[in-house]
Design a protein that fits this description.
Elements lengths: L1 H14 L2 H10 L6 H14 L10 H13 L9 E7 L5 E7 L1 H10 L3 E10 L3 E5 L5 E5 L10 E10 L4 E7 H9 L13 H5 L1 H14 L6 H11 L23 H8 L3 H18 L23
Antiparallel strand pairs: 1-2, 3-6, 4-5, 6-7
Helix pairs in contact: 2-4
Length: 305
């Protein structure tokens, strides 16, 4: 417990260090103050101490913060969130993911959209969906306080400044398929976990909004948010990979020292192959000495067949 607290305090101090603050400020949009961003990040870390756990890669936490800052989103749980996921190395890593308000914010910044929204449809709601030339989604809520029932669908609508309207609709089954391939959305038995367990409705709305955004005019703001969302899934990213995030200063933490002692399987194989090749080159064939000149080459009956 004491070790976990010390790591938490160390990472909070590092986040407020001059080097990290300078790096975050360099990518943060001018309309967001570094103080506001740092305060929200510290609250997020303190509310979820697992982000600074002993088995979490500390550098991933700061890289996630830099990515959120470069996208102009604050990791306050509304615009964006910091979540944990497992890696193949056995350690856990922190990833920043945009939330619904963050997607809306980026979409509006594109300049092509006047409004964009997403809503969950439940079994006791009054709803209908019309396709064809005159598409339409009608959705009415039951009386205040009435049980709306289980989620059956989710939709998103965007009104563009040229007067056109784009709509997207996904069933509950389609949302579940996306959740199951999310890096942080399903336990081994398929049940919701992490952020999907805590904010299922909002994650479902973000999922349908992601599909809608792929149909909108692909401005840099839209393209970036689509790419960020696709990083959450096992299939992504589908768009070209973004530029690498500048490396943050390394922290002197216990787990990093342990990493330096280990070797990957690939490195071991390369080393073993090099050793074997060296031994073969040094090997001397027993028996007659090797041929070194033309005089040593046998002719006639003694010549090899």
């Amino acid at each position: 417990m004491t070790k976990a607290i010390s790591i938490l305090e160390e990472r909070c101090k590092l986040l407020q260090s001059e080097a990290v603050q300078k790096q975050i400020k360099s990518v943060l949009p001018e309309h967001i103050s570094i103080k506001k961003f740092t305060r929200a990040t510290l609250i997020a870390i303190q509310n979820n101490p697992d982000l600074a756990g002993p088995n979490v890669d500390g550098r991933s936490l700061f890289n996630a913060c830099v990515k959120a800052a470069s996208d102009g989103l604050i990791p306050d749980g509304r615009e964006a969130a910091l979540v944990l996921f497992n890696t193949k190395t056995g350690k856990r890593a922190v990833q920043y993911i945009p939330m619904v308000l963050g997607v809306i914010k980026r979409a509006r910044n594109s300049g092509d959209i006047s409004s964009i929204s997403a809503n969950v449809v439940r079994e006791n709601d009054v709803y209908s969906r019309r396709m064809g030339d005159n598409e339409e989604i009608i959705h009415e809520l039951p009386k205040e306080g009435a049980d709306r029932g289980k989620i059956v669908a989710v939709y998103a609508i965007a009104h563009l400044k040229d007067g056109s309207i784009e709509r997207e609709w996904m069933t509950f089954e389609q949302i579940e398929k996306r959740r199951l391939i999310s890096r942080s959305g399903a336990e081994k038995d398929g049940s919701p976990k992490g952020i999907w367990l805590k904010w299922y409705e909002e994650m479902a709305e973000k999922t349908v909004m992601h599909r809608l955004c792929r149909r909108l005019p692909m401005s840099p703001d839209i393209e970036k948010i689509v790419r960020r969302i696709e990083e959450e899934y096992e299939f992504g990213p589908a768009l070209p990979a973004p530029e690498e995030t500048p490396a943050l200063p390394e922290t002197t933490e216990p787990e990093e020292a342990q990493e330096e002692k280990g070797q990957t399987k690939a490195a071991k194989k390369v080393k073993a192959a090099a050793k074997k090749k060296t031994e073969e080159e040094k090997e001397v064939v027993e028996g007659e000495p090797p041929l070194t000149s033309e005089e040593d080459i046998p002719f006639g009956e003694d010549a090899p067949i």
